[in-house]
Design brief:
This protein is of the alpha+beta class. Helices cover 38% and strands 30% of the residues. The chain has one domain. α1 packs antiparallel against α2.
């Protein structure tokens, strides 16, 4: 294999800001524990109050788990892999496992995957986890917008993400993938 040119600097791309509809859904979902607390404060019956407060703690705990384990904060393009960073974990996806990358609109995505159903966290800050699709099977998904998706074709399951500055991200990742393409 020939010498792989290293980039002058590794690109850091945060998860894109939420689209309006996902931001509205996030605010609505955060209303649920607030409603539970309000109900608990107006409930006289002690066991009911304890149950409602326990449910509130469970819901807020689920929200926190989604934030630290499902919603990535940054995609870092390093010398030989894309590193995905969450508050409580990291994962590397090698360029050698990637075949191509491109931007896809909502319409192009529908044509590409067919019908899809989310498996994982959805609605709160975006959609994270798996997208089961009729045409492509399981797709790894980390999206915070409903437009300008980045589709990464891989040897195993494809990835669907929404980094900030998607044009810059795709241009830089394309260079990395090209450097790791088999020579022949």
């Amino acid at each position: 294999m020939s010498e792989i040119p290293l980039p002058k600097h590794s690109g850091h791309y945060r998860l894109a800001p939420m689209s309006r509809s996902l931001a509205i859904m996030t605010v609505v979902l955060w209303g649920i524990p607030l409603v539970f607390v309000a109900i608990a404060l107006t409930t006289d019956y002690s066991p009911a109050r304890i149950f409602i407060l326990a449910m509130t703690v469970f819901i807020v705990g689920t929200f926190a788990w989604t934030w630290v384990r499902f919603r990535p904060t940054t995609f870092v393009l390093g010398s030989n892999a894309m590193e995905v960073i969450w508050p409580a974990k990291r994962r590397q996806v090698t360029y050698a496992s990637m075949r191509s990358v491109r931007i896809a609109t909502s319409r192009e995505l529908k044509d590409l995957v067919g019908f899809g159903m989310r498996v994982g966290a959805g609605g709160l800050w975006g959609a994270f986890g798996w997208l089961w699709t009729t045409k492509r099977g399981i797709v790894q998904m980390y999206i915070s917008r409903l437009d300008r998706f980045v589709w990464i074709e891989r040897d195993d399951r494809p990835w669907l993400i929404t980094p900030e500055r998607p044009d810059d991200f795709v241009a830089e990742l394309t260079q990395h993938i090209g450097a790791w393409a088999p020579q022949g």
